[in-house]
Amino acid sequence: MEYLNIFLEYIVEIGILLFEFVGVGVIIITCVVSLYKCIGRRPDTRIYLAKGFAMGLEFKLGSEILRTVVVREWKEIAIVAGIIALRAALTFLIHWEIRQEESLTREALQKKKI
Predict the structure, then answer these.
(1) How far is CA 80 from the centre of its chain?
(2) Is 7 exposed, middle or buried (0-12, 13-18, 19+ CB in 10 A)?
(3) Using CB atoms within 10 A as the burial measure, which of 36, 37, 44, 71 is most buried?
(4) What is the residue-level pLDDT of the chain in tens, covering all 114 positions?
(5) Could you tell me the pTM of the whole model?
(6) Residue 72: phi, psi to the nearest 5?
(7) 15 and 68 in contact (C-beta within 8 Å)?
(8) Where are the alpha helices (DSSP H) in 40-73?
(9) What's the total number of domains in the chain?
């Protein structure tokens, strides 16, 4: 049984590192592409950047949820819960920003058609 516990911890650590790596990679790639779009004065730059941040944060949130599998003390649980709450709040705010920006873009397009 001890070997299964060690194996589970090993697999969880690999999953955490993988999700963290993917989340950071998504954020970096999004920033580079958004910089290119910003230089080209593309109107969808803010929406693209916000969507990329949201996706990156969701991967990072997934890694924190996996981290709850291997915590052993209440203090660690409280820290992980705080990190999850902060990342969830950031994701919520970014999705709200995306909706606001998309509605403003739709309104601007409708005004151009009139």
Answers:
(1) 16
(2) exposed
(3) 37
(4) 889 989 989 999 999 999 999 999 999 999 999 999 999 999 889 999 999 999 999 999 999 989 888 888 889 889 989 998 998 999 999 999 999 988 988 888 788 776
(5) 0.82
(6) -120, -25
(7) no
(8) 45-67
(9) 1
